[in-house]
Amino acid sequence: MMSTGDRFAVMEAPSGTVTFLFTDVEGSTRRWDEQPGAMRAAMVRHDHVVRSTIEEHGGFVFTTAGDEFCAAFRSPRSAVEAAVETQLRLGREHWGTLAPFRVRMAIHTGNADERDGDYFGPPLNRCARLLSLGSGGQILLSAATELLLSDERFDGVSLHDLGAHRLRDLDRTEHIFHVDHPDLPADFPPLPSEGPKEEAADRLSTGRQAFARQAWQEAYGALHDAQKTIQLDGEDLGLLAESAWWLGRSDEAIALWERAFGKLSAAGNAERAALIALSLAEMFHYRLAGAVSAGWMARAERMLADRRDTVAYGHLARWRTVMALEREGDLDRALELAEEVHRLGTDLGDANLTALGLQDRGRILVAMGRVDEGMALVDEAMVAAVGGELDAVTAGRSYCNMLSVCDQVADYRRAGEWVEAASAWCEAHSASVYPGICTIFKAEVKWRRGQWTDAAEDARDALEHLSGWTDLAAAAWYQLGEIELRAGRHDAAEEAFRAAHAGGRTPLPGLARLRLDQGDPDSARALLEPALSSQAQTALGRARLLPVWFDAALASGREQDGRDALDELESAAAATQSIALRATVAERRVKLALASGDAGTARSEAERAIAGWSELKMPYETAQARVLLAETYQASGNRAAAQLELDVAKATFTALGATADLERLARVEG
């Protein structure tokens, strides 16, 4: 680094042969629209890092516009070192909800006119065109600059040849290099470049065919190559956007869908444009950008106002169904809308709408407590998904909804079967968001079956796969919390539950169970009370919370509250015929019977709980029920039978790594 004196000595504008460094923030326009407050704070830090690093390396900042910096250096080496150090410093910053926050950079050397501290001429145009090719986090270098650096040796810096590319509006091709550093990202998309239109047309045809085969990587590559040379129309931009989405490139997909919407609207294709608007509404909804989502929803509604007998309107009605069910909790309205979707699908002969309407009707009926009727419809809708009758997006939704509703009714055996059924489909779409969702459900099935280590790995894989999907990542955090809670790692469980809550997923009942395990039943009740008193809470949602409410009530001496909770839980178990809920009810009956001195009833209920959990192949819950059975034997004076059950439970807890349960078991042994 230069001394202070040297640094300020070159703060005047260099002249003659100058090396230019241009920078800008990737995706800044959309970020300003979505999170203006966060961007305002982030840009203060960004500007400080970029300017101070450039000046520390002898650079002269001659222009800033929005998020762009333009700087001039006397030597190419100083420009490269400044660029690398700036990227490193930006990478060490914490960008919160804006992460990943990436800046692209370009470096070019040439002779430019300097007047009053500003520069003019072809080298600036070439540097700007070079910058437009880069991706966030990337540093591109022109051949002119690379030639001047050929004898230079950098600490950790190397140059990677990206070949010759034609820059927009410039006749001469540019040989481009990428600046590599071991602490900077190295994996970037291919550079866009102009090429023969015939070849681009062939690539476009290849992309369309690959999309039809659901070969997402091939489709994305071919369509992406084609758009470097020819202008894609709205339909083809939509194909590229969906291909990008399947490959986990959600930010890119959003930008492409926005472009597709504009072109389709301009071409008068209102129905297709409205479908794109609905895709964007859904994307922003699940990113917790409610206002942006509502804006796209309003556009779709406006465009389809007089097109009620169309497939596009059916998908609008379907999104309204989801909002009524999941956001508003208006089950009657949701059912009415789902029936409209199913009718439209049937009348129009659209298998996707028909299946979505059928499955949504099933989900809503389950939420209403009509479990058998609802699950029958969900099963029926799954036949189309398994049979390959649906497009990829609808099939993915069908699998996810099936697993979700199984989880709601505590039908863990059924969920396990559908996880297996969905595995082949998820594998075929392994880069998309759906496998991440499937992995969350797989994680729950695994930890319930006692595969805690594998379940934790699945949850962490889902977190990595679902970056950018705040609500889905929150669901993965919740599963991690449940695993850590069972393992007795309370600090880790607390951290995971709080992360789930921060992402919009209620951390219940897990966090309340954690408070109970920490010996604080009053806090457990305080956490549960708002959820249980919520008007939007369904009967099945309450059934997930009531076991912990019961335990907290007994632990705090409120037996009647516990009995009231048990009555409601028994009704839910009868309505759903869930083996898990029946076993849960049996365990609570054991506790009440022991409290009243009825060891015989307690023993019968404990045996019923063991049978239920064993049937579901849930070893942790089975072992906990065995501890209860041991307590019933102790209450009747049969210490030998009690010890037998405790020994089996201890072996299970030891194998699982359930340290907190081993400590509780030791207290039972006395």
Shape: globular
Question: Which radius of gyration do the C-alpha atoms yield?
Answer: 30 Å
Number of helices: 31
DSSP summary, beta strand count: 9
- Taking pLDDT < 50 over at least 5 consecutive residues as the criterion, the unreliable ranges are 1-10
- The chain-level mean pLDDT equals 89
Give helix % range.
55-70%
Instruction: Give the strand content.
Output: 5-15%
Identify the strand order in the major beta sheet.
2-3-1-4-7-9-8
Short characterization:
With about 675 residues, the protein is α+β, with helices and mostly antiparallel strands. The protein is built from 31 helices and nine strands.
Task: Report what the structure shows.
By secondary structure, this protein is α+β, with helices and mostly antiparallel strands. The chain has helices at residues 4-9, 28-34, 36-56, 76-92, 122-133, 143-148, 197-212, 216-226, 234-246, 250-266, 270-286, 290-303, 311-328, 331-348, 351-367, 371-386, 392-408, 412-428, 433-448, 452-465, 470-486, 490-502, 510-517, 521-533, 539-555, 559-576, 579-595, 599-615, 619-635, 639-656, 659-669; strands spanning 17-25, 60-65, 68-73, 103-111, 113-115, 118-120, 139-142, 158-165, 174-180. The chain has a seven-stranded mixed beta sheet with strand order 2-3-1-4-7-9-8, with helices on both faces. α2 (28-34) packs antiparallel against α3 and α11 runs parallel beside α13. The longest helix is centred in the N-terminal third of the chain and has 21 residues, at 36-56. Mean pLDDT is 89; it is low at 1-10.
